[in-house]
Amino acid sequence: MANKIREATHAGSWYTSSGTKLASELSQNLSKVTPLPELDYHPPVSDAKAIIAPHAGYSYSGPAAAWSYAAVPTEKTKRIFLLGPSHHAYLLGVALSRFESYETPVGDIPLDLSVIADLRKTGVFSDMKASVDEEEHSLEMHLPYIRHIFKGRDDLKLVPILVGHPDKTTTKKLSQVLGKYWDDEETFFVISSDFCHWGARFSCTPYYPNAPHPPNPVPPVPYHINPASFTPPDLVKRFSAADANPQVPIWKSIEYMDHEGMELLRRPGEAGAVEKWEAYLDETKNTICGRNPITVLLNLVQHVYKDKAQKPQFTFVRYEQSSKCLNGRDSSVSYVSGVLRIPK
């Protein structure tokens, strides 16, 4: 390629292009992350192997993403596999970058060209066009955080993977290919995903008129015992004013639906985890844009731990919404930070 460095195309719009300002913003976000003793969350998390983190503009999702990135055990990590969904180009399977490094305002990140070459030989992956690579924000929005938490480290390398719509055969092969890297203690996985995109502009307006408070609320959602007056929720696929329950504003319904999804992800190694996750997505039509990278992770965990008694678990440490929807004209996007911890 003529240019071997992927340009930070969203700098100056989705986040500041000033390296000094960006480093300060990231540091401030990370400084606000506090331990959560009730979740045994004391960052950095030594037994963490993967995170789920959002990828919206930093003014929206940057503070939430910090809760995932604070957990990364940077001292022992030298390679990051970054899996993000394809928003702009239809992709049947999974694709690799052809660049040699990725630019960020706080420093470039070299790609692990040796590993990428080995992955390419498996025949499982296609190659991203340069234009697709630079247009995609699901990968780029993680790069400044990755570079920042590994600042001063010249031994960090990145393996970006764009995830389209791999079929079950491709997903099975992908699990086998990625399995050996999962077993490498110096390799860490980042899964890029926002959660519910609610609103007519997203063609997504499901509503639970009788949504209870989430059974395992993710901070800062408050914990309290579910009111006895709530009945098991029935889902309305398209919200209308006639369906509205004054006791359950739309944002509370979204909160419950997102927590449903997180609850299914807590134990990704258990039998049936993939099927339950896919059934949930099919039933709710929740617009979790990183659903396919998350499904890749679930299948990978199923492959690695299928014959092991001890299974990894997700700890979800942050849940936020960009705004609180009150009527059918409103819209919002949800942001989730989760940490996958492997058995000690």
From TrEMBL:
One Pfam family per UniProt: Memo
InterPro entries with a match to the protein in the record: MEMO1_fam
Transmembrane intervals: none
CDD domains: MEMO_like
Domain of life (superkingdom): Eukaryota
Family: Belongs to the MEMO1 family.
HAMAP family from the UniProt entry: MEMO1
Name of the protein: AmmeMemoRadiSam system protein B
Organism: Kwoniella newhampshirensis
